[in-house]
Every structure is written in structure tokens, then in C-alpha cells.
Write a sequence for this structure.
């Protein structure tokens, strides 16, 4: 029995040694795990900071590119606006120049109008109140005559105009 007791003692001592060894290894593993956790956290933090810096730089470049594009678009819109405004102003001016009479033509027309107005005034002073119309299917020129007045001419084909 002594052998068994000794054997049990040796086994107990071996188990304690193994337990102590396992506990030491477990403590070292825990310390190593904490150190590894710190390293991983630091690496993640550093990687995140690097990526955020890259993202920030890319964002600044994109914002600058958008500002340049915005200026370019504004310039194009301004040029189109000026071009369309010029075209819209030029069309009526060209149409007016082409369709309306020139100053010399207007002056000639005014002179002609004044001459005709003077002729009408002279005729009215002399009593000219002739009423002319277009008559019949051939659109012939007709005049209103005074049927009570005597007729003249060898064939009696001249009549007095109404109002004289």
C-alpha cells in the first residue's frame, strides 16, 4: 500500500506541477493575448487613420474637381446665354432692316403722301366729292352720277357726277 500511496503522492505532485505549469502558461497566454489585443487595436487604429486620410485627400480632390467643373459650366452657361440673347436681339433687327423701308424710302413716301394730301385738299376746295367704287363681275371702276342733271355729249353718254 505504501507503494500505492507513494504512487498517489507522485501522481498528485505531477498533477500539481502540471496544474501550475498550465496556470503559468494560461497567465502567459492571457498576457500575450492582451498584448496581441493592444497590437491589433493599434494596427486597426493606424490603418483606419491612414484610410481616413486617403479618403480625406480623395474628397478634397473631388471637391476641387467639382469646383473647376462648376466654373466651367458657369462659363458655358454664360456664353450660351450671351449667344442666345444676341441671336434673339439680332433676328428682329435683321427682319426690321430687311422688311421696313429705308430712311430715303420713308422720306419719299412722306413727300408723296404730302403731295397727295395737297391734291385732295385742292379737290375738296373745288368741290370734288366723287364717290368711286368697283362694280360688276369685271371689277370695273364706277362713279355715282346725278340722274336729275341733264346728259351731255353727242350720244348722251356724259353724265354729271353727283355733288356738282
Amino acid at each position: 500500500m505504501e507503494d500505492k500511496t507513494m504512487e498517489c503522492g507522485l501522481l498528485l505532485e505531477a498533477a500539481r506541477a502540471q496544474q501550475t505549469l498550465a496556470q503559468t502558461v494560461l497567465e502567459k497566454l492571457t498576457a500575450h493575448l492582451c498584448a496581441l489585443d493592444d497590437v491589433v487595436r493599434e494596427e486597426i487604429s493606424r490603418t483606419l487613420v491612414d484610410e481616413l486620410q486617403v479618403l480625406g485627400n480623395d474628397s478634397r480632390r473631388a471637391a476641387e474637381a467639382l469646383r473647376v467643373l462648376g466654373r466651367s459650366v458657369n462659363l458655358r452657361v454664360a456664353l450660351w446665354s450671351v449667344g442666345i440673347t444676341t441671336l434673339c436681339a439680332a433676328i428682329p433687327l435683321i427682319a426690321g432692316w430687311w422688311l421696313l423701308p429705308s430712311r430715303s424710302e420713308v422720306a419719299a413716301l412722306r413727300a408723296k403722301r404730302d403731295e397727295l394730301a395737297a391734291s385732295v385738299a385742292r379737290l375738296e376746295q373745288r368741290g370734288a366729292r366723287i364717290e368711286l367704287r368697283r362694280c360688276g363681275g369685271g371689277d370695273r371702276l364706277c362713279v355715282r352720277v346725278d340722274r336729275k342733271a341733264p346728259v351731255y355729249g353727242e350720244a348722251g353718254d356724259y353724265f354729271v357726277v353727283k355733288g356738282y
Observations:
- The chain is about 75% helix and 5% strand.
- The first helix runs from residue 2 to 99.
- The first strand starts at residue 132 and ends at 135.
- The mean pLDDT is 88.
